[in-house]
Design a protein that fits this description.
Length: 440
Amino acid sequence: MTSLSRGLALGALAAALTTTLLASPLAPPAGAAGPDLPRTGFERSEGARWTTQPEERDFLAAVDRASDRVRTDRIGTTAQGRPIRLLRIGAPAPKSAADVRRGNAVLLICSQHGDEPSGREACLSTVRDLAFAGDRATRRFLERTSVLVVPTANPDGRAADTRGNSDGVDINRDHLALKTAEARALAAVQRDYRPDIVYDLHEYGPTVPYYMKDLLSLWPRNLNTARAVHRESTALSERYVRPEAAGAGFSTGIYGIWTDPETGEPVKQVAGDGQERILRNTAGVKNSVGLLVETRIDALTDAEKADPALNNRRRVTSQLAALNGLFDYAGERRARVESATARARLAGYADRGPVYLGGADNEPPAAEKILADPPCAYRLDAQQYAEFKDELALHGVSSRRTAKGGAVVPLRQSMRALVPLLLDGRADYHLTAATPLKGC
C-alpha cells in the first residue's frame, strides 16, 4: 500500500470493515476530521441495510457543505423523476469541466445495476474520505487529479432492487444507443470531462466450483482501444487492483472466464467480450483507460448466511480494497496514463489504420468484421440526422451539415473508431446505416 492509500484511509477503513465481521461497529475513516463526519445509512446500521436514496441525498449534501473539495451536480433525471448525481472532487473542487480537462481525471460509475449495491456504498464512503482526509498525500493527489463519482448510476433500479432501470433496460448495454436517461447522462459526463480512467463497480453471482472468486476484473477488450490505453487498462487490473485485493485477503480472477478448481486453467469463457455498447469497452473506444470490477454477492460462510450484515460488509470491504489499487495506480502512473489517453485522442485525426466491427483482444475478428480501408466519412440523410443528431452530440462525435438537411460525419476526429460503430450497417449495434463515403 502506498502513502496515498494510507492517506486516503481506505486501507484503514477496509480493515475496520473487516473487523466488523466480528460484529463490532463501523469506524469513521482513520486520519479524518473527527467522529462527527457524515456517515451513510449502511455504516450507521453496521451493514444491516443499504443506504436509502434520501439518506444518500442528505449524506452528500452534508459532505458538500462541510468540504471545499466537493461539488455536487445533477446530471440527469430518471423516468421516475429521481436525480442522477455527479460529484466533482479535487483540492479545491474543480469549478468546471474545463478545470478537470486541464489535469488528470478518474471517473467512478457506481451501481449501474440496481441490485448490485456494494460498489455504491464503497463510492459513497470514498467521497467522504477524499473530502476530509487531512494528510499531505491526499491533498497532493487531489491537487493533480480530479475524482468524478456517479454514486448511483441507476437510481430507479436501486430503489426497486432490480438489475435494469424502471423500463427494464440494462443500462450497461445502452452506452452506444443511449436510449435511457441514465446512459445519456453518463455519455455527457464522458464527453464533457474526458476522464483518463473510467472505473465501473459491479457485483456477480458465482458458479461453483468454476467461477467463485471474491473479486473479478476486466479491461476493455474491444479491438478499437488504442494499444497504449489497452496496456494501461490491463496494468490497472493485473498490477494494482487484483494484487491490492489479494493483499487484503480476497481471491481474484479475470471476469468472464471459468477456471478448473484443481489446475486453475481456464475451461470456458462465459462473458467479457468486446461489445462496444458495454461501458468498459465504450470507455476504451472513447480513449479512456477502463476497468470493470465485479465482487462476489453471495454469502460465503454459515455466519454470513445467518447474518446478512456480515456478508454485506464483506462485499463492501472487497470493493474498498480494489479502490485502493485504483488510487495507487492513478497516483503512480499519472504520466503514463495521460500520455496514453492524449495520444489516443490525437491519433484519430490521422485517420489511419483499420476499424474493427467485431472480435476482441482474445478473439480474432472475422474477416468481414474488419474495415481494412475504412471510408473517410459517412453521410446521413435528413431523416437519419434528425433522428440521431442528439446521440452523436452526446457521444462527442463531430459532423458537418449538408444543404439538404443531412450531415457528413468524418472519421478524421478524436472519436474516429466510434464513428463506424455508430453508423456502419455492418456493425452489430449501429444506430443507423449511413452511406459510407470514399475520397473525401
